[in-house]
Every structure is written in C-alpha cells, then in structure tokens.
Batch of 4 targets.
Target 1
Amino acid sequence: METSTEETGKIISLAEVKNILKKISKERKELLYEQKIALEHAEKFVKLSAKQTKELITELMKLDHVEEIHAYKIADLLPNTEDDIRAIFAKERYTPNDKEIKNILEVVKKHSVE
C-alpha cells in the first residue's frame, strides 16, 4: 500500500507512512480515525525499517524494467513467489520474463533476511 503525499506527489513506502504517522501521533494527542487505521495497518504489515525499505527500492530500480512505482509495491509487499511478482505487474503493459522475476526475488530475499 504505497501512497503519495499531497504536497509533492512523491511516492512513499508503507514504512515511511508508519514513521510519519508515529511522528504525528507524538505531536498531537490523538490521530484522526483514518490515520489510526492507516497506522494499525502499517504496524501490522511493515516488515522492514524505512531505511531498509529505501535500500531495497534503490536496488530494485537498478534492475531492468522495474520502475519506481513497481519498486515501491515490491518493497511494501515483499513478494516471495514468481506468481506474487506477476500479480504486481498484472495490469502493466510489460510483464517481466522468468529471469527478471528471479532477479527481483533474489533482491527481495537478500533484503528480507537482513
């Protein structure tokens, strides 16, 4: 569940969303309902730190045919099967071949183990 900030239109990872919402919760007494739900979701599903996620995204974007939006989706979901990768690219004009899928999975596995 990547999102983009309204002010910049920049894509951010779920790990970054978690950090932003935690910061907001410290500054305010209470989060808005939607923010609480988003923070609960992030805390439940984020497996890497924001720094680890950024490193993963950077490495994924070095691969052929992995655009920024795909890198963020992959980093948020941490897919571990070829079918998971195919699902991420299902609505795209380009579908990675078997070698590219294996490369993506190798990068994800390398960062997930750390």
Note: The first helix runs from residue 14 to 27.
Target 2
Amino acid sequence: MSEEIYYKKFKEEADRYIDAIIKSDHSKKLVLAGPGTGKSTLFKRICVNNIQNKKTNNIALSFINELVFDLKKDLHKLAEVSTLHSFALKELQKTPAKGQGY
C-alpha cells in the first residue's frame, strides 16, 4: 500500500471518528488520545461547531503543559486552554474566603 493511500484511509477514518464525536448530543466530551492522533484538529472542529451553534464557552483542559502550549496556538480565541491544575486554581480564587484561615 502506498503512503498516499495509507494517509487517505487514515484521514477518512479519523474524520469518521471526529464526525461521530461532534454529532454526539452529550454536552461534555472526554478525549483520550496519544501523541499525533489529531487532538488539536478535533478540538478545533468541536469549538468551531459549538460557536456556530451559539455555544461560546469552550474549555480545553490537559494535564500536559506542552499540549496546552500547542492548543493555545491552535485554538486561539476559540477556547480557554489550560492545565487542569491552573484551571482549578483560577476557579478557587474566584470563590470568596469564608471565615478566617483554612
């Protein structure tokens, strides 16, 4: 099988999975995928689809700083992108402290 045919089959299969995820009626999606599997492409298509459907509060979270860096470039202005830790810390800082101390 030539490299071009292999790539075409891979792309068709990836598009089929991406379409299934986008067409899912679940509002929250958890994506588990390894390096080079098209996460940025998937997230971009989900964000664009959400924005077209008037859902503008897109959040992409990762445990990996390098993925956050890449997603910030790829999803520029389409989603809030951060590590799970920094997102949680920011949300905690929004909550007013009750009483004194912890």
Note: Helices lie at 3-23, 39-52, 65-74, 84-94.
Target 3
Amino acid sequence: MKTRIHKGDTVIVITGKSEDKGKKGEVIRVDPDGGRIVVQSVNVRTKHQREVRAQGRTMKPGRVRFEAPIHISNVMLVCPKCNKATRVGLLRDDQGVQRTCKKCGALLDA
C-alpha cells in the first residue's frame, strides 16, 4: 500500500486515546505494508526491560519509554503553508507525481 504521508512530515492525531488526540508531531518511521506510522512523542509506551547479555554486550535493565506505531488513518497531514490539518492530493505533471494540500493547493514536496 502506498502512503501519502512520508517520514519527516508533521501530522496531527485526529482520533484515538484522549491524551494523544490533538497532538502534533513529526513522523519518525512509516510502515506502508502494515499501514502504520510512528509519530514523535505520540502513543508513548513503557516497557520493563530485563538485563540482556548478547554478543559480549550488556543491555541495561529498567523501564524503557518508546513511541509505539499508530494506524495511518488516525492522523492527518499538517500543511506547512496554511498550518492546518488537510487531506493530501496528488498532482501528476512532467516532474512526476507531487503531493498537494487540498485546502490551499500548496505543493508539499517543495
């Protein structure tokens, strides 16, 4: 599945947990096969890690906080020009396919 949200884009969470709803963040990682993305400081989980020894190295024990993936349908792209949550349109021309803002028409891949 091709996604219209890429790594480095700013997105806003439109649905989900009440503490994450309305948060803005930058996309860290995109998983197009699973339809999920990882957004900075959104959906933060705590994992209790035990001490692990592998290949001569030791991983420290304790609580590890990390951003868990969320479904791509739960976020909307924020246009850098109009600074609003928007749907993404595709513009096909001589340069190839470019993403556009549906609200103001600005090119997102500038």
Note: The mean pLDDT is 93.
Target 4
Amino acid sequence: MCFKNLYIPKKKCRFAMYSNICKILKPYINHVEMKKYNFNAGPSILPREVIENTAKQILDFNGSGLSLMEISHRAKDFQPVVDETAALIKELLDIPEGYSVIFLGGGASLQFMQIPANFLVKKAGYLNTGVWAKKALKEAKHFGEVVEVASSADENYTCLPHNFTIPTDIDYLHVCANNTIYGTEMRKDLDSPVPLIGDMSSDIMSRPVDVSKYTAIYAGAQKNMAMAGVTVVIVKDDMLGKAPRELPTMLDYRTHVEKGSMFNTPPVVPIYSLLETMRWCKAQGGVKEMDRRAQERARIIYDEIDRNKLFRGTVAAEDRSLMNICFVMNDEYKELEKPFLDFATEQGMVGIKGHRSVGGFRASCYNAQPIEGVKALVNCMKAFELKY
C-alpha cells in the first residue's frame, strides 16, 4: 500500500499522527486473521495437504481438463482411486484375507439398520455406551430380537461398562468404540465368544485394530479419514448372505462387494479426499504413529484439566477418549462457562463447545490435529485461570 497521500496537519502532535495512521491501517490489520485451531467433532480437521491436493483435483482431475466433481465414476482414471484407497486401508489396518472394503453413502446412521439387515439372524447383542450406540440398538429391533448386554446409562455414560458377560447365543455383539458426545473410548478390541461389529466412526485409523475379531467395521469418514459424504465398511466375506430375509439390492453388502463399490454412483470427491488422507497417514508412519500422537495430545490436555482448578474432566480416568476430550467448569466456577467459551473463541479455539445434550467443552483431537493446537488450548486454559 502507498502512504504518499497520507495527510497530517502541521499543527497536530505526534499522537494525532499516530492516531491517523492507525485509522488508515485498521482495515488491513483486521484483515490479518488470528490463527485458528479446529477442534470440531465432525466434520473435522483434515491435513492441509489433503485439502490442497483434493482442491487441485477438483479444478483439474489428473490433467484431464475436467473437474473431479464432474467426471464419470466409471472413467478409467477414477477406478484406480477406488482401488488404491481400498488397498491402503487394508495395508494400514493390516486387514487379513477374506475381508472386503467398500465405500457407501448414508453415513453411520444408515449402517445402524444395514448391519442388522445383513447379519441379524435370530438375536443380536448391543453395548449401550451412549447416544449413537442407543440409536444403533433401536434400529436393530426392526430386524429381530435385540438384547442390551451392558449399559452405562445409569452413570450418564461417563464410563464404559465393565465386567459384563457376553451371551454366546447372539449372532453378534455391536460396540461403539468411541463416544463423541460423552468422551469415552474402548482402546482395546474385546475378546468375544461371538463375532463383533464395530462402529469406529470417530477413532478408526487412530490405533491398531485386530480386524480378525470383527464381522464388520463401519465408519463415517468425516472424523479421521475424509470429508463428509462417504462411509467406509469393512466386511468379512464369508459372513454375508446368512440373514433369513430377502434384502433390497442397495442394502445387501454383497451388491457393493461384487461391484467394487460401483453399483451406483459413489461419492467421488469424498473418496478422493479419503485416498489423500490414507496416503498422508502412511507417509506419517501409519496407525502406530497416529496412536502415539493421539496419546501425546490427550496427555497434554488431560494433564491440564486435572491441574487447573477451574476445570474437571467428566469421564472415568480409565475410559477417557483420546479423540474427544470432554470437560466442564468445576461447580464453584460454573458461572465462568460462557466467559471461558468466549475467551477461547477470541484466542482462535474453534468448536470446543460441548454437545448440546451435555454442555461443557469438548476438544476433538483427531489424527490431523497438530500438537501446536493442543498446546494452544492448554495455554488458553492457563491464561483464563490467571485472569480469574
């Protein structure tokens, strides 16, 4: 910008000159935005290079002169995207032979009914660990008998059920591995006498998983894997086709396995962003490195929650999620909840307000969350403590 037309009256003092310059520079100063740290629970933070690489393909896919948004899903250049994405997921999760990876629409909410439609023969068991597990249980009742194997509802889902017995007469046990609203997480795969079904929407790719224990794993991708719009489903092939019901074509997993996720038009752009994220994850060191980072991020924030007299955690220490870190103001500082939210927002913290059903705060720390972000949040908490 040029200052040659800046007029300062001769009789004005230095303060007037400073004031005049500030008025002129103010629009430019305000235009420089504060660094933002994305703690949204989902859709959530993605690696910057994933966003940039996907954006480039949206403008021109593989030099074709066409946008990724407008190409045919059956174009010769797109099939390799699907193939590489599925192969990378199998590699990163060390998925054994006999499993298929498919890409569907409808989110995890559709899987709540598609899972029992395909796998419930006589009776299914569900762990009730929160809102999403409860919704999955409700949908399963449309297809047969459902038993609640264990629940933490009496504790307002602030812990996971422990010391429960898994019935051996159920077709499968459904678990929600990470509970985004309440901030609990199952960090280990259960040893189960029956097949497991896992909703891993919010912690898939954040830790190693023994896929061989599962009949199916499903995940809405908009937490750790991709932009919203695609659901990843991992299914054990020899468990398909056993349900005693004729399924609509689109609800039958065999349809999508046989057609390689191409039975109907798949969500093209979300699948491509998924590919870029899987490439990023592999380059960073895979799920073992994601696990290490998750533990480091969570330790930094939980240590501050436990130290800072203004705040307290809401979850039993042994069940704390590494993905969704939930906390509230201590009772004697309850009136500071809104001031802290306002203060944190002013400091660039985005999306830390807790779910509307529980209140408080929630720092979602998915794979792409940099350590810089969690340290900035901790510094914000410390600064607020000093202020009050």
Note: The CA atoms of residues 7 and 380 lie 41 Å apart.
